[in-house]
């Protein structure tokens, strides 16, 4: 089994977070260090470390993440101007928390896709 991260504790409501959505497959909460006016993380409730660990049985949760991201983007008023979804994978991808998460970023022009360092 995957090693537990802080996100599992957030999913189980054992530590505080600004949870904006939760269902049987996914949980969404605001990033503690927002990089844009809206910065929400959408995570599967199941502990899956990285995109590289996704299997066929995870397809429903992966699909739900995308649909919930679109729904939250609409709720946050981002749909018209646009927004960005990011999933970092592994060291070179800049992943810090090893529980798959999709970043929903918006509310300002986000500029070029890759930042540097
Ligand atoms: P990564 O670099 O792994 O793609 O992104 C991890 C994200 O999780 C970062 O944007 C970071 O600010 C966020 N994060 C890390 N720990 C916590 C936490 O305890 N609570 C919340 N809400 N976000 C966190």
Can you characterise this structure?
This protein is α+β, with helices and mostly antiparallel strands and 117 residues long. It has a single domain (6-104), classed as HIT family, subunit A (2-Layer Sandwich). Helices cover 23% and strands 21% of the residues. It has helices at 6-11, 59-75, 90-93; strands at 19-22, 26-30, 38-44, 83-86, 102-106. The longest helix has 17 residues, at 59-75. The model has no long low-confidence stretch (mean pLDDT 96). The structure holds guanosine-5'-monophosphate (5GP). Guanosine-5'-monophosphate binds next to loops.
What's the helix and strand layout?
Layout: H1 6-11, E1 19-22, E2 26-30, E3 38-44, H2 59-75, E4 83-86, H3 90-93, E5 102-106
Antiparallel strand pairs: 1-2, 2-3, 3-5, 4-5
Note the total helix count.
3
Describe the sheet with the most strands.
5 strands, antiparallel
The domain tally reads: 1
Report the end-to-end length measured between terminal Cα atoms.
32 Å
Ligand inventory: guanosine-5'-monophosphate
Gross CATH architecture: 2-Layer Sandwich
Mean of the pLDDT scores? 96
Principal-axes shape call: globular
User: Uncertain runs with pLDDT below 50, 5 residues or more?
Assistant: none
How many β-strand stretches? 5
Level of helix content?
10-25%
Report the top-level CATH class.
Alpha Beta
């Amino acid at each position: 089994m995957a090693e537990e991260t802080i996100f599992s504790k957030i999913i189980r409501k054992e530590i505080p977070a600004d949870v904006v959505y939760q269902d049987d497959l996914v949980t969404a909460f605001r990033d503690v260090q927002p990089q844009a006016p809206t910065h929400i993380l959408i995570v599967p409730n199941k502990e899956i470390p990285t995109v590289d660990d996704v299997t066929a049985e995870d397809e429903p949760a992966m699909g739900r993440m995308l649909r919930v991201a679109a729904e939250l983007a609409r709720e946050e008023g981002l749909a018209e101007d646009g927004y960005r979804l990011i999933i970092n994978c592994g060291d070179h991808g800049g992943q810090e928390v090893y529980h798959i998460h999709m970043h929903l970023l918006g509310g300002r022009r986000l500029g070029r896709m890759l930042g540097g360092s």
